[in-house]
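User: Second chain of the day. Same drill as before.
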Amino acid sequence: HVQLVESGGGSVEAGGSLRLTCVASGFSGSCMAWFRQVPGKEREAVAVRSLGDAYTYYADSVKGRCSTSPVNYDHTLRLQVDSVIPEDTGIYYCAAGPWVSATRRLRAEGYRYWGQGTQVTVS
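Assistant: Same format as last time:
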């Protein structure tokens, strides 16, 4: 069965960089993503990657500050956000699933598998 293991959460000083890693064991799909959720708001996509380099998405909130590793057959997605601000605070969830429509892949409903979530706090 599929398991998503997240690592790298914790406190980050404003202006620094946050780095997260997700390893999806047993996963053979074509889409992985990092989502962020804060109290009172919907879970939103931060970064989405297809297998290989065919597709990359970054949310407007992190565009220009965000980078990810290519998703290859190691089924690992690394996320880095530079120059972090307090608004980057939240619970970050790794997600994985099949390749779906452009709209669906940006929504939590488009993913079948989820990590437990890891708290990131920007001080």
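The chain is about 0% helix and 45% strand.

User: Great, on to the next one.
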